[in-house]
Amino acid sequence: MSRASTPGSPAGRPGAPAGHRAQSFDYTDGEDEVALDPALVTSPGHGAVGVFQAPRPVPRRTPPAEPTAVTAGENADIDSPFLDLFGGARPGGARAIPAAPAIRDQPAIPQQPPTVAPPARPAPELEPPWTPDDRPTGGRRPVEPRRADAYPATESRVPHQAGDRLPMLHPTSDTDPAVGGPSPSRAAAPATRAPSATPVSRPTATPSGRPTAPVERPAVPTDRPAVPLDRPSAPTERPASAAPADRPALERAPRGADGSERPRGAGKEVVAPRQRAASRQDRPVRPTRVRAPKIKFGDRDPSVELAITEIAGHLTFTPNTVTAWYWLPEVRWAFRPDAEREALLSAISEQYAGLAGFRLHLRRTTRPFPADEWARTIDAHTASPLPDVPGTAGWADHLVAAQRHLMAVNHAEGQTYLGVTFARRSLGDSLTERVLRTFGRGTADGERRKLGRTVEQFDEVLGAFGMRGRRVTAQELEWLLYRSVALCMAPPGTLSPVTDGRWERGDLLALTEQVERYRTPYGSTVKLVNRMTGEERHVAVLAVGRMEPLEIPERHEPWLHFHERLPWPMEISTRVDILGSGDSFRNLEHRLRMIRSQQLDYAEHGIDAPPELERLAKRALVIGDEMTTGLPVDSARAHGWHRIAVGGRTREECLERARRLIQLYSRELRISLQHPKNQDWLAREFIPGEPIANTGYVRRMPVPLLAAALPQAASNVGDRRGDLIGRTAGTCRRPVFLDLHFPMEVRERSGLAVFVAEPGGGKSTLLGALGYLAARRGVQVTLLDPSGPLARLCAMPELRPYSRVLNLTGSEHGTLAPYSLIPTPLRSEFGIGAAGDREFEIAVSNARAERRMLVQDICMMLVPPQVAREASTATLFRHAVRQVPAEETSTLDDVVSCLGRLDDDAGKELANLLLDTAEMPLAMLFFGRPPEGLLGADAALTVITMAGLRLPDLKIEREYWSAEEALALPMLHTAHRLAVRRCYGGSMSSRKLVGLDEAHFMEGWRSGRSFLVRLARDSRKWNLAALVASQNPRDILGLDVQNLVSTVFVGRIAEDAEIASEALRLLRVPVNDGYEATLASLSAADTSSANRLGFREFVMRDVDGRVQKVRVDVSYVEGLLDHLDTTPAAIAAAAGVLPSIPLPDLEA
Amino acid sequence: MRLRTDDDIYRARLVYLGPPGYTLPVHLPYAQYGLFMLLVPLYMFIHWLFTFTVELFPAWEIALAIVTTSFIFRHVDPDRPARVVIRTALTDWRRTREPAVEQRDPRLVGSRIRIREELA
User: Fold this and answer.
1) In this model, does residue A329 exceed pLDDT 90?
2) For residues A399 and A640, what is the distance between their CA atoms, to the nearest angstrom?
3) Are A619 and A601 in contact (CB under 8 A)?
4) What SS3 class is residue A577?
5) Residue B96: inside a domain
6) A699 pairs with which residues across the strands?
7) Residue B50 distance to chain A (closest CA, Å)
8) Which residue from A563, A764, A780, A982 puts its CA 20 to 30 A from A972's CA?
9) In this structure, is residue B52 part of a structural domain?
């Protein structure tokens, strides 16, 4: 279940050790894949794991009450108005209650304390029958153990929902004797109510809601009716557990001198109700006892308003300026042709140049990947997941595991905002606003109307190709402001998992009040503490220092996108002034004059001027020339500050991350990131509207270089509704989801997916993993795996009841009878009317033609190659096949007999040759009729194997193949058909998936091509996802079906540069652009390690043409990798028992 | 596309060589002289606050100003002009050490901001 459902606790860790600790959480190593980094694993709800099943009874989970109780004293210095809600006292003698420890053992029972309360106070009208005489009879200390064994039984049956509480208050008599036995006097209703009501109602209460109720009650008697349900439970428990021995102690507690300094004020939800209830019961209401909250809003609670005073639509107002904000969508960068990239960059730089004269604020923040949203999507698209097998992870668990994995791997999505500060506000305007504010209205209508007209020019400039910016909404601006104030901290999650969870207007801004900031003198980090969640972040802000020349599309990554290589999220703030040609030239000329004068000085003094002066002067001249005569793009300059904020849970972690970032930038981009002092100001600079922290490091650059920063670059691939298969492995890490039916169902493309890799590149494993994941979603999956390891998938406990293995080498005669492998179309598959008739006729005759073609090819494969090469052979086969009716019911034997009946020696010879092959047991599969019900449509996963078949090496001439190897060829051909044949059985619209391994054997045969074409064509009609794995992309290219291919995976291809460039062609990535090396470097093993490589990488092209490097990672499915391991050792081990040693961590 | 910043032009080292006809033995940036000339009167003023006398040749003040100037310029580079260094030194000193009992900076609060969904 979702961990943090209350807004009070940060996701990663309990909210307990809150706020103001000098010592931070321990810094764990391995920051690369920090599990559950709170910055990503978002707090409440947001990164929550969506669960898809009826709510189960929660096994008495310990509420947050427990930890908070411990930190009562620690939090004493928090001056929060919220804390005063829980009673008036300041933190103090919290632990004064002697009974507390005993109760804390059972933290799930907040009401337990009231049980102890003595009955001195006659119960209010709700509880008339309750009399103190229960007291002596009732439980004593020993009740505790009894409670332990008696309650779970009751609890497990009770769905814990608020509504259930009421009926359970009237218990059945069977529970009564258990407790009520000892008290004969307890005939009254409350007495019977006691035992059952308490356990039942206890878990129903929300941990936080419950305690507050009793608190309110004594203080405000009128509240009483509001909480009638709690009422019976509290007092009735009393007989059960109130020990006479305890009572005095408890009574003393509220009454005594220390009673007044109860730590109610510290927000100890558990403690407060306890003593409260006690005091209520042991004496009539004594409101005087409750000391008025002593609110210490002292000098240490300053707050400073942000400079922004108003958000109106996409404009923000500060007292002096107005800024228009735009949202820049992510752009694809990786694997695009350089020309395209250059076009993009020049378009963006033109847009920047068009903003000359304005000050820009470019902000990039992140949003944790909404794993729960994805899970809801995939669940919505999964009509009938595979039924759960008891004892294994069900569909819900499967999704939960995937979400956990998503959150553990720290995926964050970038969000880029561009603010254009375009107007200075006149004194009148800001005065008007100030006056209107006092009346609850902001900026004057007239001003806003005027600005509305001005701002349209930016829509035009920014909305064009390049940035394609759109106006932000007020909510997005709120989000940006919150993220900027709480820099690098966990973002607030959705408000509620039940409703749409949206924050209302202003809520996010109100949350900024909770963020406190700490600084140290000349310190290198700023510390931010969220007072609500207790989250603590240390933030270091780095400034972009000296930059060496960059070759952006060709050699280097965009320089503000580059930081995404590192696995933790960072924030970027860039403040630049765009100078038009006039301004920038004046600026430059001034500088040039200074240089010249210095040169003159040297000359006057008769000293050799340093050579760089001349060089710089020349360069200034060149630039000046560019400015005066060039286009606006050449002349415009961007002078400004570029900052990157790095966060960490501790100072050390933060500095270590900063160090790694600096290292990465200096090594790969030759940009020296600086770590200036005055971090507090720098961190403030990230907030829109705040002043610039002038700590130097102003960068002056031509606009194209600013455009090449491209913080909005991203590497997305895949759809967002399929199974999680891994993450992108290029310049940034995004989760990759793949729904193989997405091309057909949404994009209306063919569902042919091609996998190409060298042996060992991970094709089969990926095929198996995709098959497994699809089968989990209820897709009918058929995998053809000639070599056999995928058959082990069927042994997985969650699939075992729904899967079957078909081993062709042990099958009956006629299994692969070629005629029946091609289904006859049904009339119902076509539209009604004459057009449908015609289509149907065409399809039927096509099927016949295809059958003939297949049979001819099979016959050619069966006869020795020398014979096949003779011209007469083809003619005779064609003749014979023409004689035999091309229907499903025909068999190969008909062809043989037809050949034998010819009065031609060659024909008889061919018939004999075919009969010769039929003697081999495997060849018998081709002859005869297929057995009935060979491939039932019932199994969710069918794996067809050909165990023991020896696959020939295609590089060797066919003449040299052994008889067995020669037979493998027609078997593979027909087996491919067989695998697909199964899919034509069910309904057309149901989702089907076929995975075909070793498809390279199809190359060179006419029927092979027609098979793939037909597969690609039919895939849409039949909603059939076809995965075809091959060792050589030439097979697919040679078959000329690449236009029908929607998804491509290319694995490691290091041996042959030619194959690599063909693979690139398949990916539609420019060839000879250096990407061949990328293919060779996929899944590169670390030579220094002796372990096996724990992951596989592919370059993937999705149906939308996006290409990315992808690291496949399905480790979240327990046991899947063990079952998919195709290495010899693992197969040997699997013969007995599956390897018990876990594979190395996939994400190592 | 080869892209480079214009920063190197601004990185030229501009030094004062001395009055015409006389070359100083050390060449220091103009800014350094400027800072020195600001610091001497400052120190003289501080001195005056203590003693209420003004010395004819403020030897101590000059010495202190030289030390301070050189100290400040140790941190100056083309990316970080002197005024930035001084400003940082003057503003960033607060909160004297990582305290055991922490003291906080003002929170930056955005809850007062007015929000309109639409501009007009």
Assistant:
1) yes
2) 46
3) no
4) strand
5) no
6) A640
7) 29
8) A780
9) yes
A811 CA to centre of own chain: 44
- Whether A705 sits inside 8 A of B88 (CB atoms) is no
Report which listed range, A60-69, A364-373, A649-658, A783-792, is most confident.
A649-658
Do residues A116 and A99 lie in contact, with contact meaning Cβ atoms separated by under 8 Å? yes
Q: Which residues from A are below 8 Å from B100, CB to CB?
A: 22
A-B contacts at Cβ under 8 angstroms: 235
Q: What is the ipTM of this complex?
A: 0.81
Contact B109 A605 (CB under 8 A): no
With CB atoms and an 8 Å threshold, state whether A519 touches B107.
no
Encoded amino acid at A324, one letter: A
Query: Residue A314 half-sphere exposure, CB side, CA atoms within 13 Å?
Result: 21
Q: Which residue from B17, B20, B80 is facing A697, i.e. has the nearest CB?
A: B80
* B14/A452 CB distance under 8 A: no
CA distance A277 to A118: 10
Is A591–B10 a contact, with Cβ atoms under 8 angstroms apart? yes
What is the distance between the alpha carbons of residues A265 and A244, in angstroms, rounded to a whole number? Answer: 29
Find all residues with CB under 8 Å of A446, minimum gap 6, and list them: none
Residues of B in contact with A477 (CB under 8 A): 115
- Compute the distance between CA of residue A723 and CA of residue A768 in angstroms, rounded to an integer: 13
Distance between B49 CA and the closest CA of chain A, angstroms: 28
Distance from CA of A1072 to the nearest CA of B (A): 18
pLDDT tens per residue, range B69-118? 999 999 998 888 898 999 888 888 776 444 556 666 778 888 888 888 88
Residue type, A432: T
What is the Cα–Cα distance from A347 to A338, expressed in whole angstroms? Answer: 14
DSSP run (H or E) holding A112: helix A112-116
Q: What CA–CA distance (Å, rounded) separates A402 from A468?
A: 34
Inter-chain residue contact B94 with A521, CB threshold 8 Å: yes
Tokens 């003094």 found at? A605
Phi, psi of A12 (to 5 degrees): -65, -30
Composition of chain B by helix, strand, coil, percent to 5: 45, 10, 45
Q: Whole domain around residue B77: which residue ranges? A: 28-84
**Chain B residues close to A437, C-beta within 8 Å:** 114
Per-residue model confidence as pLDDT tens digits over A986-1003: 778 888 898 888 877 777
CATH match of A724-811+934-1136 with 3.40.50.300: yes
Residues contacting residue A273 through CB under 8 Å, at least 6 positions apart: A110, A111, A113, A114, A210, A211, A212, A213, A214, A215
State whether residue A701 is helix, strand or coil: strand
pTM > 0.90: no
At A136, is the secondary structure helix, strand, or coil?
helix
Q: Cα angle vertex A345, ends A732, A474, to 5°?
A: 70
For residue B89, give the chain A residue with the closest CA.
A522
Substitution target from A616, A639, A685 for chain B, most B beta carbons within 10 A: A616
Contacts of A676 in chain B (CB under 8 A): 80, 88
Got the DSSP string for A720-782?
SSSEEEEEE-SSS--EEEE-TTHHHHTS----EEEEE--TTSSHHHHHHHHHHHHHHTT-EEE
Residue A1110, strand partner residues:
A728, A1098
The reply to whether B94 falls in a domain is: no
In angstroms, the CA A274 to CA A258 distance is 15
Determine how many CB atoms are found less than 10 A away from the CB of residue A257.
Answer: 8
Q: Test A598 with B15 for CB contact under 8 angstroms.
A: yes
Domain count, chain B: 1
| Separation between Cα atoms, residue A720 and residue A373, nearest integer Å | 10
In the predicted structure, residue A1014 carries a pLDDT above the cut 70: yes
Rounded distance between C-alpha atoms, residue A856 and residue A851, angstroms = 8
- Per the document, the length of chain A is 1148
Q: Do B111 and A513 lie within an 8 Å CB cutoff?
A: yes
Phi, psi at A976, each rounded to 5°: -60, -45
